[in-house]
Amino acid sequence: xxxxxxxxxxxxxxxxxxxxxxxxxxxxxxxxxxxxxxxxxxxxxxxxxxxxxxxxxxxxxxxxxxxxxxxxxxxxxxxxxxxxxxxxxxxxxxxxxxxxxxxxxxxxxxxxxxxxxxxxxxxxxxxxxxxxxxxxxxxxxxxxxxxxxxxxxxxxxxxxxxxxxxxxxxxxxxxxxxxxxxxxxxxxxxxxxx
Length: 194
Fold this sequence. Notes:
By secondary structure, the chain is an all-alpha fold. The chain is built from nine helices and no strands.
């Protein structure tokens, strides 16, 4: 039984039947969530926008080859995850500072993990903790990072994450356990200083 939302299936079928406006409706429905995931993964607005645009271009290009009962959300997130992995690997071979990272460093902003403004005395401590968390998440393997972001930020179920990542629901649980353990280890020294 396919549990993809009926509206996504209807839009996919309309797109496959030649209704190009269905792509615009899918973009309106999914662009924001996909951008949020991509930004948290690559931490660069321009790259995140490009990756999301590429996902929708690929959806349009591959529309005829998709099964009519395709889980659209899983397809979108799987495609985006693969693009993010590819960019992450490319950046590993071609390191550099992004404009977003430079702006964040100069302003102290950390948009990926925004919270309410703390009291002035707590601001520096919170900024350091958020920066340490962001750095620790960035150091996770692509599989652990993807699973963690999909679960904690996109609030997807284990079943949805399993479909996106191509592993079992038990594998999702294991990946989340490992990701949390690595974050605890990475942040342990930082938190012990507080």
